[in-house]
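Deliverable D5.2: sample structural annotation.
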Amino acid sequence: MGVLLVISLVASGCGGGRDAGRHAGRRLVILGFDGVDPRLLSRWMEEGRLPHLKALAARGEFRPLTSTNPPQSPVAWTSFATGTGPARHGIFDFVERDPATYLPDIGTGGIRPAKFLWGLFRTARPEAYSRRQGAAFWDIAAAHGVRVDVLRVPYAFPPDRVPGGRMLSGLGVPDLLGTNSTFTYLASDLEPGTHADPGGGRLFPIPLRGDDAEVDIPGPTDPRGDSRPPLPLHLGFHVDRAAGTVTVRFGGREERVPRGGWSAWYPFKLPVIAPLGLPLVSVAGLCRFHIASIEPLRVYLSPLNYAPAAPFVPISAPAGYAGELAAALGPYKTVGWSEDTAALNAERVDEEAFLADLNRTMDEVRASTLHELARPDWDLFISVFTQTDRVAHMFYRLLDPAHPRYDPVLAARYGDAVQRVYERMDAIVGEVVDKLEPDTTLLVISDHGFHSYRIGLNLNSWLRDHGFLVQGSVPAAQRDADFFPGVDWSRSRAYALGTGQIYVNLRGREGHGIVAAGAEYDGVLDAVARGLEAETDPASGERVVQKVYKGPDIFPGAPLERRPDLQVAFREGYRTSWRTPLGGIPAAVLEPNDKKWSGDHAASDVADTPGILLASRALRAGVDAAIVDLAPTALAYFGVPVPSEMAGHALLEGTR
């Protein structure tokens, strides 16, 4: 049953807007902070570093919040939205595979392209879609007359209808290149030609002549398709070495940016169809520049964000709401992966630049949160911050002296980076509390915790070495390739894709499946699970894997063609390798994690990776709290009937 049909049936069957009187005067605020770990939170609360959170816990309660299996953001936040597990809502990982081709695809959704007649007349706009099944609780609440305001809930893209309310999408909104978040790095010491950064960015040389340079680089894809070249970005630079600045010209704007500094936002419009110079169709965006170095000249260009007032596809409901926020507060990041972890991981920006950008982005989210809270026309308010997750991913190495990338010099300067972002979270919670009436209920949550990620396990290499995945002869140039180089599917029984998922090469499901359903399939599951759970790290003698969960057990009722057959849950310090998600098969089974991305959770065990729940009022006694419980909790709070498919239960005392 479609989401819109579910909402319309619920509304018509239960009175729709007529229910508003039942919850008149009730208000609920849910603040989400992605990736906040209860161990770190408890330590810093006890040390007095998080006074507002400590006061909130004393006034109400603080509990760990069980995540999903696996405990990763797309799965967990979708369970938050729908009150259901992945078997029902259909999001299992960042990555899913096409069983016919064994190739990876984005696991959460995407964008269908625009349509043009003769390349001149647009007949259909581009359209975002989600793989999520089921309605979000805020949409159900809105259909019952609850006035909702929803900001940046991860993987709630495209935005839901929220009749009578407002919604801005966050994590899941792509950049204008159609990617998760691709940075661009330009430098005068790069060789001529276009280069791909293995860290996930694009590299271009700057043809500096004296103190000046002009360079054209490819921008967004031409939405008309048909093998047209990308829309060009024309950039200009002037270096003032004496002043230590670079003047950056782009999109009709120029600004002097100091060495080590960040520019303001550059709005731009790229014409697509412009007869007689009049742009009938254009692509609008926002970007910022960071001057990493002047000699040599090295410039970081942020991912190309959608323009809030004219996004490539709608990112808010109503469609003009994103632009209204920009008109009130100024331009802001719209790309969902809003902290450029890839650029720091690739060491194209340094820790100082990354944190400056992260804090500015957190300022933008804070400003919109406080602005919307000040409006009188909401009953249910939700806002999610992702900076707490990103700083832990990138700076856990400085909390863990055993990490391969631990650096005592950097630790002396940035070892408190995670703590400082938690302190910013605490201050924001304090500001929110000050704005709320005493009878407004506040819940502060996170979707999962964190672990150190020191060693990566190449799952496909392990499957190869144990005879489950068979490779033929692989040319030397392809040995480091993704997408299963040289695999002989006619002899392979299992393969890995994504962050901890293993699939059986099942006959009738996979394109070249050889394993029969029934006893043979069960035998492969048992053998792989036993082998991985016994795997040890030769350097330490420690077991690598905490538990291997079987898909039929943890995803009951999920479509067989989409459900992982095994979900690997790693112990502290271990994770799937960087090469596993896209089907790489390196020579080594275990590899040290030499990246700055040093903390993780995506393939950890749900049993030891909970998030947090702080409430301003009592929670039901004797009831364990899980992220799947938030949806029924919110609906019950407003007296809205909880749909039978929701797996969780209401957590607030006095609700059912």
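Annotation notes: The two ends are 26 Å apart (CA to CA). The mean pLDDT is 94.
The annotation will be released with the project's public dataset once the embargo ends.
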